[in-house]
User: Fold this.
Amino acid sequence: MPPSLFAPLKPVAPGLRTVLGALCFVLFFLGWGIATYGGFVKPLFLASPGDSLVAGWGLFTEFGFAQDIAVTIWRVLAGFALAALLAVPLGILMGAFKPVEAFFEGFVSFARYLPASAFIPLLILWAGVGELQKILVIFIGSVFQLVIMVSVIVGSTRLDLVEAAYTLGASRRGVVLRVLLPAASPQIFEALRLVLGWAWTYVIVAELVGASRGIGHMIIDAQRFLDTGQMIFGIFVIGLIGLVTDFLFQAAHARLFPWARGR
Amino acid sequence: MSKLSIQGVEKTFPGRRGASATRALEPTSLEVQDNDFITILGPSGCGKSTLLRVVAGLETPSGGAVLLDGQPVSAPGPDRGMVFQSYTLFPWLTVRDNVCFGLRERGVPRAEQLAVADRFIAQVGLRGFENHHPAQLSGGMQQRTALARALANDPKILLLDEPFGALDHQTREVMQELLLGIWEEHRKTVLFVTHDIDEAIFMASRVVVMSARPGRIKCDIPIELPHPRSYKVKTAPEFAAYKERLTEEIRVETIKTLQMEA
Ligand SMILES: Nc1ncnc2c1ncn2[C@@H]1O[C@H](COP(=O)(O)OP(=O)(O)O)[C@@H](O)[C@H]1O
Ligand SMILES: [Mg+2]
Assistant:
């Protein structure tokens, strides 16, 4: 490769970009294949790519894995939607109005360091092992992070835009609704994407305890039968869903905020 | 009665975190008549922006008062249109919606907003760019849009804080002519801050020179060049005479500023 490809910050051609991205996956599977098919790792610890795929097929045909996936996705979306519903408006208020920020900031900063998984025993006590408990874990894990992120984003809106709006006759309400909000939207959207990714880790943790369905439950179940193929397939499915979600978010971002491209 | 009356306005910025306070503006008084085009000329850091921001209502003076049509000014409002040195178009709005912004905030019906916006967009020479977003425009086009946005509100006075400061020399000269043309047509009262002597003389009916920090008004020179002025006036002997005088005035202040910093 010519060394000019590695000039700092130099963009890479779109075609080469795709090739390089795919190459990483290829090498990953190659390494995995060599480790397993080559007999370097025992199947008890790590199933081969082929076995994992077969195990996955079995999961769908025999164990209703599609339903597990649906249940998990539903939990993530429900918990995440609840968190967003509370966090986005509160974060906007905190970012826009400094007294509101002063009131909540300390508490929220404290609360966001509380690990969601540590709440699982308490939540089981309060809400049982049903859906509500799972959703609450995700809610607790996401809401405080999101509040802080949204408030920082809104609070860092360019002051000169706000001033320009005032000199054009905007009221305070007008400034919040028609300057702070649109200015912050692309980044808020980006924050939602990030936090949704974290919500996926919480849901799996929540499902490892006291669940009867879901991807996390399936993985724990597979562990009992030492079925590394199923476990690996389950983990892969989570990654795949993440990849698809990211893609959807990016497509939506480009559609919703064409003016923010290249920022 | 003056259109705008600046009466003993002074400003001291409180020092932050133990730093000493900054005296930005000595008590400053200035009477602006209706239809005046006043350029405020001074070395950078002398308090020009501060003065303009006080008039805009974006900064509270430490003392003194600003009256517009006899009414005291205390907060920003659409009666004082402002164009900033930095690009302050709303990036999420098209050129047209940027120009409509003030009208919309004031509840003007959409059809009327569009009619007004299109008129001013045409006036600043941006017809055909109505649906562009700011990121698609050059700096000069952005500032023209900002000018149209301020004018669309039909303010009593136009405040311009080095609006062409970030533009290259050629674009800047064309922008000056454009602004002067608009002024010759509408005869808006204008307060224009700059540190460029040519720019100050070319557009002004009066040039107000400010001293080095803390700023105060050092002299106030009426510019008696005939209207309509074209760029050719810049090579006229009268222009050169004004320039010679202002260069002297500014030089002294710039040297003072440099000594202060040393
Ligand atoms: N918000 C502020 N806080 C503290 N000092 C400021 C602030 N704004 C301006 N100043 C200081 O006041 C002085 C005048 O600034 P400014 O009015 O921006 O000057 P000019 O526009 O003539 O370059 C400068 O020394 C500047 O550092
Ligand atoms: Mg300035």
Remarks:
- Chain A touches chain B through 24 residues (CB under 8 Å).
- Residues B 48-49, 161-162 surround magnesium ion (ligand 2) (CB under 6 Å).
